[in-house]
Structures are given as structure tokens and as C-alpha cells.
């Protein structure tokens, strides 16, 4: 994991030594944020980012670039010809990006702010985890996480370990991340279609949730399924069926989708009308599909 290497005592010095034009273009708060970004990427702590470091960082954000290409991009802003990206040059890149002079390095600078935010959220969740969830990043990919949620005690999911894959888009947190459960689970708020997508869960997403809020709400679903989401799914499925009456056979994809919805409708009905039977099925599936290695239960 990358860490902030620049010592706090140097922060004011670095910002105050920027050219006057850059200090006037950005607010003090913006420059502080840029310094935090830069420091986070300065893996060696030497006050500059080498081309080899930049390549790995760019690749983690989905930006492909060769060593020669990155060296050429650095050269455009490399005032002292060091061959590396230093803080004043990093700020100039952001200035160029604001003015519409974008290239791959400018795109990296734009993405780096979001990547830093995600790393900060990941660090916070690692240091201060929620009740049932272990969060981990995916190596060399800034935009994806894995969640391992332990089934809460006193529920049919007790002793299970449920794996979720999270993908962040460029508009996070204003746009909800994509969330897919990799473990089969019998639950009235999950679509039983192989991907175990949650229906309606993210429709009320708010930017202030961030990942901690999302995870806490997801944990709560394992304790108390959302009745409003169930009602919405039942209503929308009934309306969809009315429109599909003329497509009794349809394509294989449509037939699979109908089977998925029918299975989920059956799950919801069992939950509402025969809770004992629901708990039995959910517990059995948890034992069959959600048993973690002993090391993950410790």
C-alpha cells in the first residue's frame, strides 16, 4: 500500500516555493489537496515520482502507457530536466489539464484525486472496520475492491462468508459503485441470476454514504431484508409479465431472465408467508455455498 512520505514539516515550504502564477491560480486548500495526492504517489519519499512509478500508477487506473511515452510526457513539464515529476511540475500538470491541454498524464492527474480518495476510504475501513466486513483492494487496480461479509449471528446467514466485488466509476461518489455478490445467497433482496445482483439497493444512493455507509446498509440487509424493495420488485415483475404475454417463448436470454425473476418472486413469497421454511432454505444454502476457510473465520 502506498503511504504519504513527505514529512508534514515540509508542506508549507513546498507550497510556498511554487511559482507565483500557480499559487494565484489555486486556493491554499486546493494546493494542500494536490500535495497530499503527490505525496501519496511519491513511493520512495524522495520528493519526486519516477517514470517507472508513474507507469504502475497509471496502469492501476486503466491508463496504458509505455516508458518512452511517460518520459516524453514528463519532459513537457520537467523544468529542471531531472527526468522525474516533482511537486511544482505536478501542479503545472493540473493547471494544464484545467486549461484543456489534456494528455495521458493529465488524465492520470485527474484520476489520481479519486484514487487517493478511495485509498483513504480503504485505509479508514481497514483501521476501523464495520461490524461484519473485511475490505481489501485489488492489486494494480485502483477501481476495484473485494468485500468479505460474515453472516450476522441469529440469522440464516450465520457462519457464512459472502464475497462481493465492487467496481468504482469515474464519477464516484456522485455515482454509486457497481456491487455484485460472488456467493450464492437465498435472500429476498437479491436477484437469483448467477450474479446475485441486489435489486433496488443502490437506487437511493447518496454521495455522503461513501463506502462505509454502503457497507453498513449492506450488513443491515443480512439482518433485516428490505420490505419496500421486495414490494417494488413484485410490482415491477407483475407489470413486466403483463407486457410479455405475447412472448411466451422468446429468446433464451429472455427465458433465463424470466426464470430468474420467477425464482426471486418465489423467494420473496416464502419470506413473507413462511418464514420458517425461508430460514431453512437460506441456512442450507449458506452451509453449501458460503463456507469460508477456517483461517477466514478466525
TrEMBL record:
Keywords: Calcium
Any one GO molecular-function label of the UniProt entry: calcium ion binding
Domain named EF-hand: residues: 29-64, 65-100
UniProt domain UBC core: residue ranges: 113-265
Gene3D superfamilies referenced in this protein's UniProt entry, alphabetically: EF-hand, Ubiquitin Conjugating Enzyme
Domain of life: Eukaryota
One Pfam short name: UQ_con
InterPro entries: EF-hand-dom_pair, EF_Hand_1_Ca_BS, EF_hand_dom, UBC, UBQ-conjugating_enzyme/RWD
Protein's recorded name: Calmodulin
Annotated source species: Lagenidium giganteum
Lineage, top ranks: Eukaryota, Sar, Stramenopiles, Oomycota, Peronosporomycetes
Amino acid at each position: 500500500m502506498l503511504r504519504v512520505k513527505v514529512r508534514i514539516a515540509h508542506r508549507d515550504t513546498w507550497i510556498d516555493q511554487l511559482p507565483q502564477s500557480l499559487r494565484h491560480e489555486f486556493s491554499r486548500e486546493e494546493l494542500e489537496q494536490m500535495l497530499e495526492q503527490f505525496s501519496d504517489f511519491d513511493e520512495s519519499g524522495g520528493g519526486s515520482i519516477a517514470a517507472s512509478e508513474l507507469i504502475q500508477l497509471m496502469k492501476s487506473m486503466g491508463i496504458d502507457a509505455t516508458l518512452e511515452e511517460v518520459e516524453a510526457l514528463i519532459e513537457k513539464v520537467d523544468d529542471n530536466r531531472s527526468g522525474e515529476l516533482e511537486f511544482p511540475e505536478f501542479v503545472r500538470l493540473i493547471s494544464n489539464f484545467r486549461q484543456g491541454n489534456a494528455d495521458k498524464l493529465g488524465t492520470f492527474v485527474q484520476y489520481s484525486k479519486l484514487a487517493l480518495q478511495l485509498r483513504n476510504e480503504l485505509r479508514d475501513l481497514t483501521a476501523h472496520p464495520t461490524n461484519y466486513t473485511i475490505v481489501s483492494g485489488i492489486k494494480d487496480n485502483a477501481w476495484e475492491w473485494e468485500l468479505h461479509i460474515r453472516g450476522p449471528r441469529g440469522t440464516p446467514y450465520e457462519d457464512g462468508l459472502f464475497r462481493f466485488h465492487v467496481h468504482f466509476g469515474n464519477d464516484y461518489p456522485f455515482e454509486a459503485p457497481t456491487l455484485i455478490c460472488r456467493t450464492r445467497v437465498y435472500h429476498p433482496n437479491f436477484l437469483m441470476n448467477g450474479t446475485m445482483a441486489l435489486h433496488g439497493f443502490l437506487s437511493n444512493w447518496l454521495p455522503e454514504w461513501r463506502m462505509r455507509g454502503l457497507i453498513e446498509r449492506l450488513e443491515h440487509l443480512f439482518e433485516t431484508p428490505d420490505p419496500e424493495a421486495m414490494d417494488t420488485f413484485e410490482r415491477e415483475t407483475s407489470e413486466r409479465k403483463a407486457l410479455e404475454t405475447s412472448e411466451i417463448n422468446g429468446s433464451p436470454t429472455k427465458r433465463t431472465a424470466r426464470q430468474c425473476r420467477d425464482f426471486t418472486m418465489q423467494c420473496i413469497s416464502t419470506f413473507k408467508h413462511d418464514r420458517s421454511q425461508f430460514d431453512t432454505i437460506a441456512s442450507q444454502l449458506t452451509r453449501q455455498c458460503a463456507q469460508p476457510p477456517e483461517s477466514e473465520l478466525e
